[in-house]
Amino acid sequence: MPAQKHAWSWRDEAGPLLAITLLSLVMIARGYGTWCDPIIDFGRELYTPWRLVEGDVLGRDIAWFNGPLSQYWNAALFALTGPSLHALSMLNIAICLAFTLLLFRVLRRLTTRFAATCGTLAFVCFCAYSQYEPVANFNWVCPYSHEITHGVALGLLTLEALLRWRDSGKARCIFFAGVTLGLTFLTKPEVFLAAALASVVAVSLARQSGNGRLPCVALLVAGLASTIGLAWTALALHGGAANATSLVVGGWKHVGNAELSDLLFYKSSLGLDEPGRRLVLLLLASVAWASVVLLAVVFGSLATRRPSLERLFALVGALPLLVFAVLPLPARDYVDSFRIAFTPILPASALAAFVALVRTLRGRTLDRAALITWTFALVLLAKLGINCRIYHYGFALAAPALALLVATSLGPLSLWLTTRGVSVRVARSTILGFWFGLAVIGLRIDADYSSEKNITVGAGPDRFKASEVGAFINMVLDPLVATPPETKILVLPEGVMFNYLLRRRCPTRVINFMPPEFVMFGEASMLDDVERQPPELVIVHTRLTTEYGLPLFGRDYARGLKRWLYDHYRVEPSLSVGPDPLDEARVVDQLVGFRVWKRKL
Fold first, then answer.
1. How many beta carbons lie within 10 A of that of residue 467, not counting itself?
2. Whether the bond into 535 is cis, omega within 30 of 0
3. DSSP run (H or E) holding 147
4. pLDDT, tens digit, for every residue of 459-483?
5. What is the bridge-based pairing of β-strands 489-492 and 537-541?
6. CA atoms of 124 and 542, how far apart (whole Å)
7. So what's the pLDDT on residue 6?
8. pLDDT above 70: residue 382
9. Quick check: 180 and 187 in contact, CB under 8 A?
10. Residues near 87 by Cβ (< 8 Å), separated by ≥ 6?
11. CA torsion angle 39 461 98 428 (round to 10)
């Protein structure tokens, strides 16, 4: 992607920024209140900052496996507003809007106004607020982990500081890049690694050489070290040196854990569960992407030869996927094809990065910014392996690469085709028609999933919409509202959202009891916790974990915890809903069931 120096002017960019903001507001309005899952993941993101405000210490009182930044950031919000899903959603929307504008700013450094606008709109439409599977939480408003969205946003901020330093040479820019890089370190390893490698490339490509580069490296490292050092000091004063060290190290503690990486979930996340099949799908989707470019070349070449028919060829080139996208088929019929359609993000990004590298090595200094940016995007994609996607983890990890690819295809690629005798209008309309068709399909899928959420869960500022499982959750929640505030409740295997909505504490350090937690923290530690501080109530619900290769809690894992439950608790029939979640005979029926257990006298 050829880079160009661009004198930023808010007045010149007012039109694109208005379009980006309007689409963002439309996406926010159409999906508000449907973004979080009532059981999976997001309860942890509400419960933890609430407990920190109440005086608990992260790590010491709540077992944690990521960096500490996001949870204390959210706790600061709750300290100001009180615990509130609405307040957290508003803050996350503000962060997403800031990220969106920053993304446009970075893209605008690299390409034309039109291409940068389309790349940013692609992020808003595909990644920021949409849902492409039954489980929510894979969006920027209610993410499964705030560390991933905060980390990617901070990584992009680091990237912007590096690019500004590259253009201006100002010391404060490289120092600021070090500070934001340090903050990124306090989120997740994969995001820090992406930002760190982009920083290495930026410094390596700096105009300064030899001794002139050393002060820049020193400033970057100083910003990084001072940020991490200040964080460690604050955490040590709050919870002790050992706990501070563990929190600052964060997810790096578990990098290389073979038992963790052997879980089916993480293998499938990388595409290593069925590598042959994944590679075939990747190849087919890549051929489809190449066909779009070929179509643009064919129609564009014909238009060059027959200028009077240029508009007709532009229209015909844009129609194929658009026509398919509006066919009156159920949205669910598109889901698999839609997901597969984005797998070529990885090879396309690698190709674009390679082109930027070659052009940089040939002395094209304006391509250095592109190489730095692609480094950041590609390292993020590495976490997705050959299962590259924009749903699930891809909503954050693939977002920069997707925006870059859209901008590249409508900017540098289209302009390069014109040097080969292809009409730029036809090339752009054909490629734009492809992206717009995918956007229409994605919006239909998102609307289909959102339409299923018609049950209100929670009250006041904690209200949100859920699918039919919300009715069962309410049947369990409503009677428990009357329990004394000091009642301790344990939810198995996952569902600390109950604790948050009831404002009832979980007595254990570990708050989720899924297969990864058993690997990271150990069942012996969990049993020790529940025996030292037994809860008054235990809620057990159906949460099949087939994605980990261990389908049933109490049979395939957590057998000791199940024995402890049977030994010390009894089922309360009046608070039971649906089939027994621990019945080993019903492991594949997917029916929702809840049991509330009370401690035996």
1. 18
2. no
3. helix 146-168
4. 999 999 999 999 999 999 999 999 9
5. parallel
6. 34
7. 54
8. yes
9. no
10. 77, 78, 81, 461
11. 60
Question: Do 402 and 122 contact (CB within 8 A), yes or no?
Answer: yes
Q: Which residues pair with 466 in a beta bridge?
A: 455
To the nearest 10°, report the CA torsion of 153, 158, 164, 167.
-130
Residues in the chain: 601
Q: How far from each other are the two terminal CA atoms of the chain, in whole angstroms?
A: 70
Taking the CA atoms of residue 183, residue 192, residue 72 and residue 76 in that order, the dihedral angle to the nearest 10 degrees is 50
Q: How far is it, in rounded angstroms, from Cα 518 to Cα 507? A: 17
Phi/psi of residue 76, nearest 5 degrees? -65, -40
Q: What percent of the chain has pLDDT over 90?
A: 76
A 10 A CB-CB count for 360 gives 20
* DSSP letter for each residue of 301-350: HHHHH-GGGHHHHHHHHHHHHHHHHTSS--GGGGHHHHHHTTTTHHHHHH
Beta bridge partners of 443: none
Q: Which residue has the tokens 């919870």?
A: 239
| Segment 210-240, tens digit of pLDDT | 445 678 889 999 999 999 999 999 999 989 9
598 contacts: CB under 8 Å, gap ≥ 6? 536, 537, 569, 570, 572
Does residue 140 carry a pLDDT above 90? yes
Residue 544's closest CA among 597, 469, 453? 469
Q: Tell me the pTM.
A: 0.94
Range with lowest mean pLDDT among 257-261, 548-552, 572-576, 582-586:
582-586
Per residue in 182-208, pLDDT (tens digit) is 999 999 999 999 999 999 999 988 764
Torsion of CA 375, 380, 386, 391, to 10 degrees: -130
- Residue showing tokens 């590096």: 162
Closest CA to 313 of 326, 325, 298: 298
SS3 491: strand
d(CA 155, CA 138): 19
Provide the token pair at 442: 């994605």
pLDDT tens digit string along 530-542? Answer: 999 999 999 999 8
What tokens does 475 get?
A: 């049947």
* Amino acid residing at 212: G
Distance CA 154, CA 185 (A): 10
Cα–Cα distances (Å) from 196 to 155, 185, 189, 373, 413, in that order, read 9, 9, 10, 12, 28
Q: Which two tokens stand for residue 241?
A: 């040196």
- Please report the DSSP string for 206-224 in residue order: -S--GGGTHHHHHHHHHHH
Which DSSP string corresponds to 176-206? HHHHHHHHHHTT-HHHHHHHHHHHHHHHHT-
Strand partners, 506: none
CB 438, CB 338: distance < 8 Å: yes
Q: What is the dihedral of CA 187, 255, 499, 35, to 10 degrees?
A: 60
Higher pLDDT, 589 or 362: 362
> Token digits for 193?
């690694």
What is the rounded average pLDDT for all residues in the chain?
A: 91
Q: How many CB atoms lie within 10 A of CB 150?
A: 26
